TrEMBL record:
Pfam families documented for this protein: Fer4_7, FrhB_FdhB_C
UniProt name for this protein: Hydrogenase
Occurrences of domain 4Fe-4S ferredoxin-type (ranges): 1-30, 35-62
Gene source species: Butyricicoccus porcorum
Alphabetized InterPro entries for the sequence: 4Fe4S_Fe-S-bd, 4Fe4S_Fe_S_CS, FrhB_FdhB_C, Polyferredoxin-like_ET
Alphabetical keyword list: Iron, Iron-sulfur, Metal-binding
């Protein structure tokens, strides 16, 4: 039976809870807001299934095989605008929807809690677009996937690499009609901290908020922003990674799940069909695609992935690249983030402070922050942002 003695050894994928034949595993949030399995020991039959499906215990090896690589933009500009980068996920999901299939991904509920849900139509599927940098609760979706596959339906499941390994371990057999998409995953912040952020924004903008986008292209793709939209869809707040406190918390590794500091899934050769992630230096791959509207790097791991890509390519602008070049030096793919030294203090404060007080204490809007934001926006409006960024990168490389 699963026993969590070291929190770094549980990624919270929920495969064990979905697999237990006796229903004796419940996922419970700890004081940091992350879910862990809790076992009703009296009812446990000691069958060992929970351990056999745990991707942290049964982690897949990083053994080289042939891959194909692309940088990609979906041709539908509305979808690309709504997506995190180039909209590759929507293009892959379309393959399944057009076969009357089901798509699973991370979405918000009405209180902006992040959780995995399903969609069976194009309009419903739009809720998955745009990354939510918070751990998503997969709930019973692994069981729902299994049931749909057993009924003979096509399924596309997207998530973090640990969620995809958890799903595959849970299924314990290959299904021809399952397409899996994982992201290159830096880490996942705490749902409790995210709740504090939502509370702070609701205090400011009332309960009129219709959407919160972690990766809006308000100032363009290369300076993506956290945007809050009102009921009419208008952006009432748009702050970038240098000024928005939730993005600053994410990129300073202060509130991530413990397993993310010792991630077992940082690798190039994966169990998914596709791995997708950002492509900021588009000019290194194809200058013609460098339009600051979003481009995705896509790594295809399987024959099934190749078949899907061949079918969807007419909906894409893309360039074929070398898998080595696509992945080379991409730290988030290969290395865990380093835990912020203030993490313990941050969570102690998070449990007793309001969202506003918490973020003001750790991520205040100082003069330096305001100045940095003004300079970035100025560079954007004058069209020199990309040039400045590229020059700075070259200087730092020397
Ligand atoms: C937690 C997280 C960390 C990431 N870290 C990096 C990184 O360090 N570097 C990098 O280059 N790219 C990272 N990405 C990937 C990047 O943000 C985009 O997902 C990627 O560029 C694909 O964009 P797209 O336009 O093709 O898809 P989109 O249309 O934006 O689709 C997003 C997909 O991600 C899934 N998703 C969204 N939020 C979550 C979540 N919380 N948990 C699980 N799945 C989710 C959705 O189900 C959907 O399938 C990360 C993504 C996530 C979710
Ligand atoms: S050992 Fe079997 S019965 Fe016990 S918790 Fe694990 S899966 Fe459930
Ligand atoms: S990693 Fe997943 S399967 Fe393993 S114990 Fe944690 S929730 Fe259960
Ligand atoms: S960093 Fe690793 S453990 Fe954390 S969510 Fe991503 S894949 Fe899972």
């Amino acid at each position: 039976m699963i026993q969590i003695s070291d929190k770094r050894q549980c990624c919270g994928c929920e495969a064990c809870m979905n697999a237990c034949p006796n229903g004796c595993i419940t996922m419970r949030a700890d004081k940091e807001g992350f879910l862990y399995p809790e076992i009703e020991k009296q009812r446990c039959m000691d069958c060992g299934l929970c351990e056999r499906v745990c991707p942290v215990i049964q982690v897949s090896a990083d053994i080289p095989f042939e891959q194909n690589a692309y940088v990609v933009q979906i041709k539908d500009e509305k979808i690309r605008r709504e997506s995190t980068s180039g909209g590759s996920f929507s293009a892959i999901a379309e393959y399944v929807l057009s076969r009357n299939g089901i798509v699973f991904g991370a979405s918000y509920d009405r209180n902006f809690k992040v959780l995995h849900t399903k969609a069976e139509s194009r309009s419903e599927m739009s809720k998955f677009r745009n990354s939510k940098y918070v751990q998503s609760d997969t709930g019973t979706t692994f069981r729902q996937v299994q049931q749909s596959l057993e009924e003979g339906r096509w399924v596309c499941y997207s998530g973090t690499p640990c969620q995809i390994e958890g799903l595959k371990a849970f299924l314990r057999k290959e299904y021809e009609k399952l397409i899996t998409v994982d992201v290159v995953c830096r880490a996942v912040p705490s749902p409790l901290v995210w709740g504090k952020y939502v509370e702070m924004q609701k205090e400011k903008f009332g309960s009129d908020i219709s959407n919160i986008m972690f990766r809006d292209k308000y100032y363009g793709y290369k300076y993506s922003t956290m945007t809050v939209k009102d009921r009419t869809g208008k952006s009432v707040y748009a702050f970038g990674i240098d000024t928005d406190p939730m993005l600053r918390a994410f990129f300073s590794n202060i509130c991530d799940r413990p397993s993310c500091y010792d991630c077992k899934f940082k690798k190039r050769y994966r169990v998914s069909d596709f791995t997708i992630w950002d492509c900021y230096p588009v000019y290194d791959f194809d200058k013609a695609l460098d339009d600051d509207k979003g481009t995705t790097r896509v790594l295809v791991h399987t024959e099934k992935g190749n078949t899907v890509f061949n079918e969807i390519r007419e909906n894409l602008r893309y360039t074929v690249v070398s898998p080595d070049k696509l992945t080379k030096g991409f730290r988030e793919m290969f290395e865990s983030v380093e835990e912020n030294a203030e993490r313990t203090a941050f969570f102690a404060d998070a449990s007793r402070m309001s969202g506003k007080a918490l973020f003001n204490k750790y991520y205040p809007e100082t003069l330096k922050v305001k100045l940095e934001r003004t300079v970035r926006i100025f560079c954007y409006h004058t069209g020199i942002y990309s040039v400045v960024k590229r020059t700075a990168k070259r200087i730092l490389k020397r």
